[in-house]
Design goal:
Blueprint (H helix, E strand, L loop, with lengths): L2 H53 L42 E4 L7 E9 L15 E9 L7 E8 L5
Antiparallel strand pairs: 1-2, 2-3, 3-4
Length: about 160
Amino acid sequence: MNTGQMLITIAALTLLGLVILRVNNNFLNTNVVLMENKFSILAVSLGTSILEEARGKAFDHNTDSAVVTSLNELSSLGPESGEVYPFFNDFDDFNGLVRIDSSLPSAPFKIESVVNYVNPQNPDGISASKTWHKKMTITVTSDFMQDTIRLSTIYSYFYFR
């Protein structure tokens, strides 16, 4: 084998090595994106399950067993004395809930819930006084996700005479 053939062989092996490195790099980048999407979908699922669970409860502790016709009859936000998750009986008991979900050992999730009264004219704001509308915001975070997942819902109480 002469010098020209050796140079062509070395160039070919260099190109082959670069192609292999490039393919490996693409596989690793694709895998990272797939894992981030998997964790994001799981975070949305965990947050949605808390929202749906809360919406299945009564609007307020006092509306659980009686009809409330005045805002003064509504209870304060948060769980009543002795109530612990998962034995909440109304929507606002979820205020201040913090859970760590480690159902996926490679990525534990922190789920935080905040419930506030809101004014229907400004649902993004917080009302300082009691209203017939409560807004729950769920925040799901993990060290393995770049983004924070925030989900919210508004739950209203209607009384028809």
